[in-house]
């Protein structure tokens, strides 16, 4: 059965449906059954997919499936009456639809025709999709149904996986490490020890969420701050969000996140106390720098507006009309400009910690949006551990999931769009920019980043479902009581974790997550990045520029107004000019010398070096697909080379140990590469299915023009794509 996910039930279905593959001809259309379940919409057909040579299989989703949480807008059309309507939840449909167009959050557009289907059945399935894809309550999301089934039937675990595990080893890594979830005291304690933050301690004052419901139960604070003081100070912070430690530099500088102090009378006193405690936790008793992120970075509203414009550009505009002004249209979205500002500001703060040896405090009104992004980027640039797969996953757990990033609201899982903003996508895009500039510095590939972005819109995983850890506990405890589930000692229900990649992909497919440029297997284990004080010396530098003035301009890294403000010593503000000069010199020196991939990496941010992440935004656009082109062709060749090196290493080890022939066969079968060399000196051509969209396929996703090049507007009779609800309010 295609509905093998536990708890999934068919809500409605209609037979004799046509899935449109091209906009201008029906010769490629597929016939089948359109099904709406409580988890996804599914199209079941016996017809083979035309013009498609490859499909990356997700174990939870079929080739034609769309998870309900990935649906953005549902438009029903009646050709004969020339009517169309955007379907909201619990709305009536006064006409029988002849076609259904589904707009997805990942920029896909899927279209079905009901010419041969029963008109009433077609109407019912459209209304069911509208209802189930726009739930009014968090507990109506599919993860609750799934977990309820797990607790009632403990034997029925999907793929044998327990819900809630870290699952770090599920990516095919030789180490089999688990991803720390930072839900426990011990995870934070290990991170303190890993970063050498000896003057900081794990604080359990928020156990049971007694102080703040939007903080984790455990977090790290300066050792000199007593629990009693923390409780007292907490009342003055917005959301009672006390300062949160994020990371420690080997030179002793700390990275700290802090919400604004709302109590104006107490502000100066509490601010001074906190800064003094952070200073005391620094071995050099260095000053504390505050960066007011609300003043120097784009707002969440601006980021959302840029994302909407980017979507319009990548999906809606007829290509032939925008081709000439493509770059200026892209610039007008401001998306790349905002990426540049996050990378630039994070690099400035890296300079402060790395070169000036000062602790940095990221200040933001609530401390749970821009600071998630900035704190994560700074750590990716400074600490090679966070450029490994397990390290990167632990970073997302620590700085996003546990720190209270509002995934439910920002991803708009419940379709209450006023709070929507794609900050998590912007973070992944910033990381992709660094990966693009330093491809050998990361253990993971861009496919991994894209699939991680997609996983945020699959409502099975608890990881990206809630606004904070407390919400998971509160909502799931209520749900458990309503369903007579015995929780025992557990704090709320345990949901499947997105880091359990084996829930979605086979071990063979998970090999695509790995960057083939990462150092080869040594002694049977993948060589991972090692953290040492030596790695962080300020003598580490970047790749030499091909054109000096093309890399970084004199003005590129001057601190923006309010970018870096010293609160403790006003006299420092007079030194701004010399600080600017030394910062400029630091970046100039850095880019003039070879990069240490196990040390600091800094972004190049001049015009052409910030690029559009094509795999993520263009993968569903048929006309943007380059057959036998794109990054994947290089990925394929490097994989074959890396596989040959691995084969030689294994042969050499076996030769030295004189192992038996039988043993050598089994070891030579092992590979960490998705693309494998058939033999040494393998010069075989790239597989026929490789394209710039790999591992995705745009076939059957109707963005702009069809595979034969006819404008999408032709079948929509001039209607605007991504129709706004306002436009269609009266069209019934």
UniProtKB/TrEMBL annotation:
Transmembrane segments: none annotated. Keywords: Phosphoprotein. It comes from the Eukaryota. One of its GO terms (biological process) is phosphatidylinositol dephosphorylation. InterPro entries: MTMR10_PTP (IPR030573), MTMR12-like_C (IPR022587), Myotubularin (IPR030564), Myotubularin-like_Pase_dom (IPR010569), PH-like_dom_sf (IPR011993), Prot-tyrosine_phosphatase-like (IPR029021). GO terms for cellular component: cytoplasm; membrane. It holds the Pfam family 3-PAP. Residues 182-617 form the Myotubularin phosphatase domain. Belongs to the protein-tyrosine phosphatase family. Non-receptor class myotubularin subfamily. This is Myotubularin-related protein 10.
